[in-house]
Specification:
single chain, alpha/beta, Rossmann fold, 5-stranded parallel β-sheet, 6 helices, 16% strand, binds 1,3-dihydroxyacetonephosphate, lyase
Length: 128
């Protein structure tokens, strides 16, 4: 089982939901984690089960970061809003940093997310 964290800032939540819908056949084979509002949208709009953590501004990014440190996340898709300042920017940076510290594949835009989901699909199909 592959563990995937899905996170999106408000202006990117629709993009993420559409992306997850497009690749539902892949994501339904993964264990999904998300920050609270992102997870709710994925559950309600796509019908996938998601383990929901706190909302990003309330520490959810740090909780995902902690899961990464514990070796419990294999892939992260985090659609950030590059045009809006976030009150919890230090938490966002910390999450990105632990991905790099632990060499966890991280997509922060749809183009890279596409590449990442193809890699998830390849792994699920037993590819090395
Ligand atoms: O703020 C976030 C990531 O930094 C996402 O949090 P929500 O999914 O709760 O909106």
């Amino acid at each position: 089982m592959l563990n995937v964290a899905l996170i999106a800032h408000d202006n990117k939540k629709l993009d993420l939901a559409m992306f997850v819908k497009e690749w539902k056949s892949v994501f339904e084979k993964c264990k999904l984690y998300a920050t609270k509002s992102t997870g709710k949208i994925i559950e309600q709009k796509i019908g996938l089960k998601v383990t929901k953590l706190e909302s990003g501004p309330y520490g959810g990014d740090l909780q995902i970061g902690s899961l990464i440190v514990n070796g419990e996340i294999d892939f992260v898709i985090f659609l950030r809003d590059p045009l809006t300042a976030q009150p919890h920017e230090p938490d966002v940076s910390a999450l990105l940093r632990v991905c790099d510290v632990h060499n966890i594949p991280l997509a922060t835009n749809l183009a890279t997310a596409e590449g990442l989901v193809l890699e998830i699909k390849r792994k699920l199909e037993g590819g090395e």
